[in-house]
Amino acid sequence: MIKKCCFYLCVLPFCSCSEKGSELFVQLSHHQTKINFSNDIPLNDDLNILNYIYYFNGGGVAAGDINNDGFIDLYFSGNQVSSRLYLNEGNLKFRDITATSFTKTTDWASGVTMADVNADGWLDIYVCRAGSPDPEKRSNLLFINRKNNTFEEMAEAYGLADKSYSTDAAFFDYDLDGDLDMYLLNHVHEMHGLNNPKKRKLEGQSKNTDKLYRNNGLKNGHPFFEDVSHKAGVTIEGFGLGLGISDINHDGFADIYVSNDFISNDILYINQGDGSFKNEIAEFIKHQSHNGMGNDIADINNDGLTDVLVMDMLPSTNKKRKTMLNKPNYDLFQYSKYLGYEPQYMRNTLQLNRGNFNDKNYFSEIGQLAGVSSTDWSWASLFADFDLDGYKDIYITNGYLKDITDLDFIVYRKRHSLFTSRQKFDSIYLSSVSRLPEEKQQNYFFKNNKDLTFEDVSKVWTNKSPGFSNGAAYADLDNDGDLDMVVNNINEKATVLKNTTRDKSNAGYLTIDFKGPKGNPNGIGSKVWVHTSGAFQFSENFTTRGFQSSVAPELNFGISDKTSVDSIEILWPDQKYSVFYDVPVDTTLTIEYGGINPTHHIKKKSQYLFQEIAQQINVEYKHKDMLFVDFKREPLIPRNYSFNGPSIAVADINGDELDDFYISGSFPYFGKFFTQNKDGTFDTIPAAFNKNHEGQASLFFDSDNDGDNDLYLVNGGSELFDDGYYHDKLYINDGNGNFNLSENLPKLDTSGSCVTASDYDKDGDLDLFVGGRIIPGSYGLSPKSHLLKNENGVFKDATISVLGGDKLGMVTSGLWTDSNNDGWKDLIIVGEWMPITIFQNNQGGFFSKIEIKNTHGWWNSINGGDFDNDGDTDYILGNLGKNSVFKASVDYPISLAVGDFDKDQKIDPILSIHYKDDDNEYRSYPFASRDLLLDQLNFIKNKFRTYKQYSTATIGEIVSNTPCKKLSASLLESIYLENLGDGNFKIHPLPNIAQFAPVMGTVVSDFNLDGNLDVLLVGNFYHNEVSYGQSDASLGLYLQGRGDGTFLTIENRQSGFFVDGDARALARLNSLNDQLIIAAQNSDSLKIFRAINTKGKTVQISDESGHAEIIFKNGKKQKIESYLGEGYQSQSSKSHKIPTDASFKTFYN
Questions:
Q1: Do residues 244 and 256 lie in contact, with contact meaning Cβ atoms separated by under 8 Å?
Q2: pTM above 0.85, yes or no
Q3: pLDDT in tens, 964-984
Q4: In the 8-state DSSP scheme, what is residue 995?
Q5: How far apart are CA 1082 and CA 644, in angstroms?
């Protein structure tokens, strides 16, 4: 049943129309609200940071209507002051009823939550306690509502007087027996070795293990709770600071996300549906925040899946980063993984829920792309639609009273710890902490841009008011339909921000209130879908959110167009389902428990476009790579260069007219051939050559014009300086798939990246371009690339005579393509720190070099296709992406200074990026920390004696007047490069979902046979410098072409195309009239997919043809080129699938 409730629209004198400012939120003074609570923390108390490590973590706030009068009341937890309860009397006026309500606290209170614990229809208050070394002073409190604005403390009677160091609690029905159970988030006081990897305690033996209390029903007239932690599998230690509840995998059972501080990993307890939980975070999430603090879980992109935001403490400014961040410790990172820790990095993480695929849930961490990864020492994170536009925004609290992470302070402390008694050192430490400056921080508002990114509107939505803020809650305090904010501050009155959205815009709202079943009157755990104008919003009714805080048990939705709501779907915790239609807006609705079994509501599995079939066709292969750490030799480089493979090459190697393929090996492992049988299965044949080299690109082509496919192998990597280690190899095919080493290559002593073939001079044989990737030990200097001219099967280096030079940059990919439709194949190359470079073919003679303006990037790959059906070739280019610590633009590029700055006869590559300073000016600063730079440049120690001095040093002050080479990158997005003709191109960034990680392999084909070219992408890179960590957010992507150069993004759970590892090459292969897609992953299994649409016909473009043209039934034409080497270290089949009713015409050179 649905009821319409009254709502209140309060127009306050201090918010009259004539006095409206530009801010969305107005900060109300304590004189206006009568909320005088201030969480004052003395610095000279017996309880201090020496005997309680979380002394400066602050308190929380709980919001809820304790007297059922329709107004939301507030309870603030106090650390060294009493907690306070404030009754909302309307008009944003509150009355302190702490004393008369008997809700005072005398010892350290941390988290607080309101819940109807005894299911009598009135909210109770549960207060967590910590701080004191005396367990009796840490006994948690349960204030039972006596329905007359008074409470009785009954934690002991209810079995909830836990004496752990408790941070927060959440009440929810985990076992679906109809009543509320309780999860207790814990920590412990510890001062030493907090970030040192050690054997993990996973069996409940640690004091800092969370607890699960099951509601066993009535005992002595009220519920009684039993600790069932061990029985339920809640046994993993941690320093718990954040607690979120959500049905993460949509199986009907509430799951638990715990964000843990220090070295302890976060925990994702997946509800098994049998009363137990299993930590499945390693299966769901690839990396986490290192110092996990508060968290929130909600749907940020309106796809019906809940996403997770976890706070950390990464500074947002260069100055603060340089005084806080030490150098990365690669060995420690690897050791922690060896001990079973999942990867974790010091930054906020936003885990985007990608849904269920093959009965597993997956997430992509996109905090850096979203723009929310660095908000300083942050506590609460809250998702809510503050501007009522239908998308959830973010509020983040910020600040730490004393900056104990300052590296100069840490050095000072270590010095005084030497040869000093513990008692004296403690005295010195406390004294020095008290003298540390107090730098107040601004809290953050982020507006949802509706494209998976957020805009920092902290100084737009509210006046600048820095402080030290901790717990926070959103609530519609004045019943006007928008959400106000309440914040618990240290040494400052609590913040109340009135939201003026309803006063300043026509935005509508819908508030859902719940009248749940007997044991759960507030409907905790209910799910709501609100449908408007073809879209929907999704929320869950869980109240513990942010940091040590809870919100009211109601849901608020913004309705931006003010139209009526098409429908509302309600799914109660016991799976009862109801739907309501044509619901008015600007209303608070009360939904009463009821409904039917939701069998019609269960969605059927998608019909996938791609099916994984590797095992079915007898292909089992797992790539291996030997660990080599480039950072030991070159500490300033951004990534490891010894993990670039494997490559894939596709061709018929044994003359049976079936596509076979080769996957390259790595030092010291062989590559392998996979030969196709007539039934579509494959045989595996070891390639017993090139073992002691790091195989990079590979290419089948007819080098000697004898009608079979020979094999070219590019060797690369960075492991060794041995003579001959980087020499490429050419193996001649005897026609039956047997290969013998040829001597018809010049000695190419370059660590290479790619190879691509074409008869560029139209003399009847195939020539080669081989890209040079790096000079090991001299990052930033250009290696040699090579154009190898084929002269009767013997290759001659014609690079300088044809291209004008051989030091073309750090090349990653090349493509022979007729970019200007003159009938001659041009060469396009891309690479790291390189622009998109076109070598225009002047009829087989000297090539003209053209660099596309403002395209210097960290490119990985290039592939071509006529995506807009206009008769010329456009291009897909894979780049670093946007989900990285590196940000760049034409005005503010990332830069690399390459020179011998310390005169030691070695190359010093110093990377710099732009930061915005306090004066709003952008300046270029070295990316490396002082200690990391010191590993490369000894003079740094004397030039910048303190971290504070180094924190203001620009790149110009570092390199001074030393001669150096300067590189830059201003475009990091993967793009679609539209060919406009006449040598003009237009850049179109690919959708944000394609920017989650570096794009490596690409395949272009019309997979759904609609006459428009589509793209498959794979990516990731796991071997970045460990302080900013692995790029792992890509799951592979299918971009469905619309025929006009735009693409529809198809999620993996709908397409069936799923490559979530450290992906590299991607190639297309023909088998039994099917298109197969082969995806290679570094140090992981090979994946093969079948494109399910098989109704087309197969055509083939020969090596001799210039290009072909597809003519569709409607008269539309599409140019198609066939490449010998494309994408990332890939070569695809010469066969192409086209619609059955299309015709095909080949144009020969």
A1: yes
A2: yes
A3: 999 999 999 999 999 999 999
A4: G
A5: 8
